[in-house]
């Protein structure tokens, strides 16, 4: 007998259709109760939280329910003298939150409300001689930051500011024998890192370095009997991985290799019919992060009540196209 597969069972009572309006109401009310325990403990990722919430509202066609002026003012207050942007007012700048801020401003067509030249300098100064990127001044290197840097500059149309050739070389040193990518050279493949590396290569038009058959195979093996996808072998399925795996498959032209009907069923089962929103797995607590990736995943699977999503930027395709950004997908 082989090792038992780690998986979940979808209960018979699980939802089978999309409760779109409940998700809109859930996101619209999230963050309006500012003394909420949950709201307070998530301050360290407030900027990304706003990106998740605003992006999913845009994909569901209800971005106008959010307070645009308040959001823009908040982002302005989070930009530092060095150009970088923090998670919240008074928090240190980091590439992760700088990208979230740029994504939000792109949704609102309002990048001119912050100092773009300084953002570009901030990103440029985080690039190292080997082509890698630090996430902030503390010097942690991770392929996630290579994606953040390139995505951020692409949205600002300033990719010329960095050394792309070295940036690509570094990402390729993190490619493994299984076709996947890790966070640093020699690190094991993980679907979150694969998404970042594949996305980064797509933005700079270098996807030909990828062995799409080998990587596609590894990604498809993430699908479990429940239909859900895990992030790496021996892990439980999770809605956010359905996004990272599915988007990577879309970028390398292999999305048809997974069982779409079963994955759709798994994602729909992660909705909470009382509160709205999606959880990581059926029956767990919902949050804005998994709500975005649940909706974005369903969009890639062809759900027509949701706007088509761009698999690289995880933003509405119409926003990316409207900005004149062309991407090479396989
Ligand atoms: Zn998750």
Short recap of the structure:
By secondary structure, the protein is mainly alpha-helical. Helix content is 45%, strand content 1%.
If you had to describe this structure to a student in words, what would you say it looks like?
With 330 residues, the chain is an all-alpha fold. The chain has a single domain, classed as Glycosyltransferase. It has helices at residues 20-29, 37-41, 46-59, 68-78, 95-107, 116-125, 143-155, 164-173, 191-203, 212-220, 239-251, 260-269, 288-300, 317-322, and strands at residues 309-310, 315-316. It has a two-stranded antiparallel sheet. α3 (46-59) packs parallel to α13 (288-300), α5 packs parallel to α7 (143-155) and α9 runs parallel beside α11 (239-251). The longest helix has 14 residues, at 46-59. The N and C termini lie far apart (39 Å). The chain binds zinc ion. Residues 238, 240, 280, 290 line the site of zinc ion (ZN).
Looking at the structure, what is the overall shape? globular
Total number of strands: 2
Mean pLDDT: 95
For the biggest β-sheet, the strand order reads 1-2
The gyration radius over C-alpha positions equals: 19 Å
InterPro entries: PGGT1B-like, Prenyltrans, Ptb1, Terpenoid_cyclase/PrenylTrfase
Protein name: Geranylgeranyl transferase type-2 subunit beta
Function: Catalyzes the transfer of a geranylgeranyl moiety from geranylgeranyl diphosphate to both cysteines of Rab proteins with the C-terminal sequence -XXCC, -XCXC and -CCXX, such as RAB1A, RAB3A, RAB5A and RAB7A.
Family: Belongs to the protein prenyltransferase subunit beta family.
């Amino acid at each position: 007998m082989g090792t038992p597969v780690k998986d979940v069972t979808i209960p018979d009572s699980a939802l089978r259709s999309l409760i779109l309006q409940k998700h809109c109401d859930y996101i619209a009310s999230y963050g309006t109760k500012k003394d909420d325990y949950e709201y307070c403990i998530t301050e360290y990722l407030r900027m990304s939280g706003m990106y998740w919430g605003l992006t999913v509202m845009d994909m569901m066609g209800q971005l106008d329910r959010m307070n645009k002026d308040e959001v823009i003012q908040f982002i302005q207050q989070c930009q530092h003298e060095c150009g970088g942007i923090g998670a919240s007012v008074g928090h240190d700048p980091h590439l992760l939150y700088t990208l979230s801020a740029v994504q939000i401003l792109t949704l609102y067509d309002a990048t001119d409300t912050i100092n773009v030249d300084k953002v570009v300098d901030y990103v440029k100064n985080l690039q190292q001689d080997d082509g890698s990127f630090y996430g902030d001044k503390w010097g942690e290197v991770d392929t996630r930051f290579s994606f953040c840097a390139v995505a951020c500059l692409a949205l600002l149309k300033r990719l010329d500011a960095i050394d792309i050739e070295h940036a690509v070389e570094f990402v390729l040193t993190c490619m493994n024998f299984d076709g996947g990518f890790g966070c640093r050279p020699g690190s094991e493949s993980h679907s979150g890192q694969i998404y970042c590396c594949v996305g980064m290569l797509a933005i700079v038009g270098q996807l030909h370095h990828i062995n799409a058959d080998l990587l596609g195979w590894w990604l498809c093996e993430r699908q479990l009997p429940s239909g859900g996808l895990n992030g790496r072998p021996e892990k439980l399925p999770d809605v956010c991985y359905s996004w990272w795996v599915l988007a990577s498959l879309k970028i390398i032209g292999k999305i048809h290799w997974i069982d779409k009907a079963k994955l759709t069923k798994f994602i729909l089962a992660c909705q909470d019919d009382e509160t709205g929103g999606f959880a990581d797995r059926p029956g767990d607590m919902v949050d804005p992060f998994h709500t975005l990736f649940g909706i974005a995943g369903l969009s890639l699977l062809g759900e027509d009540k949701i706007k088509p999503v761009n698999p690289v930027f995880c933003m509405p395709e119409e926003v990316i196209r409207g900005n004149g950004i062309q991407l090479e997908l396989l």
